[in-house]
Amino acid sequence: MLRSTAFNDHDLMPDRMSRSGDNSSPPLEWSAAPGGTAELVLLCEDADAGEEPFLHWLVTGIDPEVSEVGEGLVPAHGTEWTNGFGSTGWAGPQPPIGDEPHRYFFHVYAVREPLDLPDRPGVTDVRRAIGRKELASGTLVGMFAR
Fold this sequence. Notes:
Layout: E1 2-3, E2 11-12, E3 28-30, E4 39-46, E5 54-62, E6 68-69, E7 79-80, E8 102-111, H1 123-130, E9 134-144
Parallel strand pairs: 2-9
Antiparallel strand pairs: 1-3, 3-6, 4-5, 4-8, 5-7, 8-9
């Protein structure tokens, strides 16, 4: 299970988490990882950005004992990757003005071995790398519109 104290599943995310706000990553909490977990992976994608989902946040190498991350912080022992905007770390929502609310899928994955990723992975690369390494996962959906 994955949840946030800032918004409920399929509810609007606070403006402070957007690129036009404070660009603050949301606080997240998740269930304990199963035995055999080598690391946790945190992924946030905009499923409504076009043909390919847009990468907003990718953190790998999270210690399996970690079960939360505070607002604006990086999970303990995690390594942040380049997002779809070309910067490292969290990139808050910035859908086109006037679009219907976009869906931002936050996923946490427990994997049995570290992921092998290219230098600048996209969402598809991450999913492919997770493949059969996944032991468990949780998803939370936040909505955002401008």
